[in-house]
Amino acid sequence: LYHQLRTPAVSEGEYRSRERLLRHLEERETLRLRLQLILSKLGKRSAADTVEVFYPKEHGPGMLILALFLLLALFLSAGLLFVMEEAVFLFLALLVVIPLFHHRRMKRMERDFATVAYAVEMVSAWRRIRGQVPEQEEIFSPEFYRAGEKAGMLRFIGAGVANDELVQMINSFLLLDILSYELTKNLLARLKDEIFAIHEGLGRIDAAISVLSYRKSMQEYWIPDMEFDGERTILMEGLWHPLISDAVRNDADLQSPVLLTGSNASGKSTFLKTVMLCAVLSQSILTAPCRTYRA
Questions:
Q1: Are strands 235-239 and 250-253 parallel, antiparallel or unpaired?
Q2: Contact call for residues 262 and 273 (beta carbons, < 8 A)
Q3: How far apart (Å, rounded) are the C-alpha atoms in residues 5 and 281?
Q4: Phi, psi of 222 (to 5 degrees)
Q5: Which of 244, 242, 253 has its CA nearest to residue 294?
Q6: Does residue 51 surpass a pLDDT of 80?
Q7: Which residues have CB under 8 Å from 41's CB, separation 6+?
Q8: What is the distance between the alpha carbons of residues 287 and 129, in angstroms, rounded to a whole number?
Q9: What are phi and psi of 32, to 5 degrees?
Q10: pTM of the predicted model as reported, rounded to 2 decimal places
Q11: Rounded Cα gap, residues 15 and 281, in angstroms
């Protein structure tokens, strides 16, 4: 929402995209509430580093290969116990080395778990939204659908810290959590563009729901009539400042330059701010605090 307020839709394509999403969610209240519930479960943990999700540091397969090597060595040594008595020393050594490796690696990975989990949860949120809104309805961009399809494998891997003591003990010997983390981290590096597209799409849905909630709180509003290929002019009728209760309404016809005059403290600055605010809200969240807005 903040991004949309900072970047008004200057192209007709972007404007119509926002308009289409708002209209669709406004007409389907049940769908809007379902999407709101999905997004409410997402959230971003304070420990998650969003920049690391979209612009991950170089993460090679070295640790993944090492973890697989240790796990393979453990299974081979366990198998050799049935044919070689000397294999017991290798097996016992691995039972000591692997938990130490797990403990040390987990200490370094803990700060990244929230970041990786956030990316995985975004993909899961996309999947649930995809189930609510079929692609043929075309209220989201094609990039949003394609990105989710490509990144869908992330939800089958995931990464996180187990709280169950038995699971922790199993992980300390079988390195399942480290393998899951390394697979996800390497996959994230390859899917950073898709994750960004999903994040943007989820943000657009969240912003649209916020705009519709804002509209409900307003005593009156107008959905702007925008023409991108006509004359460059702005006509506002009955506009008011949305943060001032019982505000005096004014008109603004900006087809030509305007000279605004008046005595001190007569409301010139407030009027200029109102005109500017109305223009920004009209072209960013498509909601004008006036009776009529044409541009």
A1: antiparallel
A2: no
A3: 7
A4: -130, 135
A5: 253
A6: no
A7: 125
A8: 25
A9: -60, -40
A10: 0.76
A11: 12
Q: Give the amino acid at 223.
A: I
Copy the structure tokens of residue 157: 């891997």
Number of H helices, E strands in the chain: 11, 3
- Residue 34: per-residue pLDDT: 92
Give residue-wise pLDDT tens across range 229-238: 877 789 999 9
* Measured CA distances, 19 to 8, 113, 225, 231, 263 (Å): 12, 37, 11, 21, 40
pLDDT at position 105 over 90 = no
Residue of 125, 154, 118 lying closest to 45 (CA atoms): 118
| CA-based R_g, the chain, Å | 28
Residue 165 carries which side chain, given as an amino acid letter? E
* Rounded distance between C-alpha atoms, residue 289 and residue 68, angstroms: 61
Enter the tokens of residue 270. 């407030």
Provide CB contacts within 8 A for 261, sequence distance 6+: 268
Structure tokens at 217: 């709180």
Positive or negative: CA dihedral 198, 147, 54, 120: positive
Burial of residue 51 (number of CB atoms within 10 Å: 0-12, 13-18, 19+): exposed
Three-state DSSP at 258 gives coil
Give the H/E segment covering residue 237: strand 235-239
Complete DSSP assignment for 101-160? HHHHHHHHHHHHHHHHHHHHHHHHHHHHHHHHS-GGG--S-HHHHHHHHHHGGGGGT---
Please name which of 284, 252, 256 lies closest in space to residue 268, comparing C-alpha atoms.
252
Nearest to 239 by CA among 259, 267, 212: 267
User: Which pLDDT score is estimated for 151?
Assistant: 81
Secondary structure of residue 244 in the 3-state scheme: coil
The tokens for 278 are: 């109305």
**Polymer length in residues for the chain:** 295
Cα angle 245, 251, 257; round to 5: 130
Q: Any residues with CB less than 8 A from the CB of 164 and at least 6 apart, and which? A: none
Q: Could you tell me the two tokens for 197?
A: 């597209």
